[in-house]
Design goal:
Bound molecules: SN-glycerol-1-phosphate
Largest sheet: 8 strands, parallel, barrel
Number of strands: 8
CATH architecture: Alpha-Beta Barrel
CATH superfamily: FMN-linked oxidoreductases
Strand content: 15-25%
Strand order of the largest sheet: 1-2-3-4-5-6-7-8
Number of domains: 1
Structural class: alpha/beta
CATH class: Alpha Beta
Amino acid sequence: MIEGPIYNKLMTTRKERGAGFLLLIDPDRVTPEIYTAQAEIAADCGVDAILVGTSFVLDSDFSSAVSRIKEASSVPVLIFPGSYAQICPSADAILFTSLLSGRNPFYLIEEQVKGAPIIKRCNLEPIPTGYLLIESGPLTSVQYISGTLPIPRTKNDIACAHALAAEYLGMKLVYLEAGSGAENSVPVEMVEAVSSYVDISVIVGGGLRTPEDAEARVRAGASFVVIGSGLECRSDRTLINEFGCAVHVKETVTI
Ligand code: 1GP
């Protein structure tokens, strides 16, 4: 598969800034006023791309949320889908995920088969991504909704084997996911083990509450970190900026 412009842009970011800062907006949790404000200030605050996604749509109109975010933002907007029903044309790209850590055929392949023709029709750039759920404490929404068991948080060898399978299946990214608002984020040791084991870029997200949490994952080898609930309901420039500085380790000025 030919690599698309958004994937290439992400790779350039990783190279030039040390790692990329991905802001997750969940339109089920953030009001349109807040997410529009976040999208407007994203580029100035060091956000490299915005992910828009939710485990399931409650009362939000997902497609118009993506359009509003895209209109307000000058950084790429990627759909991070909870289901094929969230595919819409106004984004720049979509993380075409398969929940490889689970054994539920619905999230391994069925959603993808339903979504692929819609992605083509919408002319979206798909970025094939192996999605691995990592044990993080109390049951998270994504575990509950997907009906899958996460990889035990101390089993680095199992996480590495799944990540390598993603690479050998031709996926471009592997996402280590603790779950939104997770009590415990993906352990630094696991990020280190997986990042040094595979050649594809590693995304880490879920429960990263502070810039220090994010920086520790980058120092361990993560190419991208995702911050959602750590910023939710806030369009605080200072805090978003602090996450950006922490993630962009190549730009950090050391005295
Ligand atoms: C969830 O990894 C993302 O899919 C981000 O998680 O909301 O906990 O930052 P948080």
